[in-house]
Amino acid sequence: MTELRIAVLGVGMMGAFHVNALSKRIRRAQVTVISDLFPEKAEEVADLVGARVALDPIEAINDPEVDAVLIATPGKAHEEQVNACLDRGIPVLCEKPLTTDIASAYQIVRKEAALGRQLIQVGFMRRFDAEYVALKALITSGSLGNPLMVHCTHRNPTVPDFFNSEFAMRDSVVHEVDVTRFLLDEEITSVQVLKGAATKAAPEGTHDPMLVLFETESGRVVTDEIYVRTGVAYEVRTEVVGEQGSASIGLDQNVQVKTIDGRWGGTITPGFVERFGAAYDTELQSWVDAALEGTINGPGAWDGYAAVAVCEAGVEAVRTGAKVTVAMDPKPGPTTPATTNGSEPEPGITAPDLLGARP
Ligand code: ISE
Description:
The protein has 359 residues and is an alpha/beta fold. Helix content is 35%, strand content 21%. Strands 12-11-7-10-9-8-15 form a seven-stranded mixed beta sheet, covered by helices on one side. Strands 3-2-1-4-5-6 form a six-stranded parallel beta sheet, with helices on both faces. A two-stranded antiparallel ribbon has the order 13-14. The relative contact order is 0.17. The model is unreliable at 335-359 (pLDDT under 50). The protein binds (2R,3S,4s,5R,6S)-2,3,4,5,6-pentahydroxycyclohexanone (ISE). Residues 156, 171-172, 175, 228, 272 line the site of (2R,3S,4s,5R,6S)-2,3,4,5,6-pentahydroxycyclohexanone.
C-alpha cells in the first residue's frame, strides 16, 4: 500500500481541520469517505477534497475504499465506531475521549489486546508538540535528576456556558492527565480538586478556575491550574521540577518587540489550533505512516483508557471535594483473550456526551 485511504467521521471543527491537513499537508494520505451527523456539512467538506459521503458512519468504516479511520465525532459515538474498526481490523485515530465511560474503554483495551496488534491511536496531540518532546527528552536524559513535581497551567480565553467543571475535567484537564503519564512514565493514582473563588464569567455553580492535584504511583505530585474563561488568550505551560534543576515550556517566547512609546512585548497565542497546529500535523503524519504498516505510532488504547479512568476520578473529586483514588483494571497482555480476564470492570460514572453537548 503506498497511499492510505481514510474515512473521516465527524467534520465539526477538529474533523474539518484534520481533513484539510490530510489533503494538503500530510504525505501518502487521501480522504476517500466522509461521514457526519449533518449530511450538508459532510457534503460541504467532502466537496472540498473530492471525497464521497457516507450517511452511516459504520458503512464508512466498512467501505472497501477505506484502509483506516479518523474519528472526530462526539465522544458518545466513539465506542461503537472504535469497535467497528477493531471488527474490521483496520487502524483508527480516535480523538479524545476513547469512550465516555471506564467499562467501555476497558472492553476496547481487552478486545484490541486479544487481536494481538495495536490498531487504536488516541488523539493526545501534545505528545507530538516539539516543546513537550524536548521536555520528555530532557527528563529521560537524566539531566534534571529525578523529577519530583510537575506544575501545569491550562488557560483558555473563553468557552460556552455548558462547559461546567466536570466538562472542564473531561475535555481540558484530560490533556494534563496524558502529559503527566507521558512525562513521568507512570500511572496517576489519585485526584483532588481545590475549587476556590470563581470568575464572574462562569455560570452559577461552575468552578472556574480550579486547582487539580494528581499523585502518581511513585508518590510524585502534579498540580494543574485549569481556568477556561480568562478572557485573555491560550496559555498552556508545564514546569518539571527535578532534583538537579527545573525546566519550563509554553512560555510564548516568540518575537519580542520594543516600541517608541516605551513598551515591550510579543504576541500571545489565541487558541489551541494555533498553539498545537504543528503538533496535529506531526501526529497525523506519524499515524498515516504507521497505519500504512498496519499499526500505530503514538498514545494507544491503554492511554485512552487511563485518561478516562483518571477523569472519572476527577469528576468525583469535583462533586465530593474528596481525594479520589483512581480505579484501573490491570493492563492485559498482548494475547489476553477478551473473554478470559477474570473480573469485569467497574461501570464507573457515565460521562455526558462531551462534544455532543455543544450547540
Ligand atoms: C479542547 O477540547 C482541547 O482539546 C484543547 O486542547 C483544550 O485546551 C481545551 O480546553 C479543550 O476544550
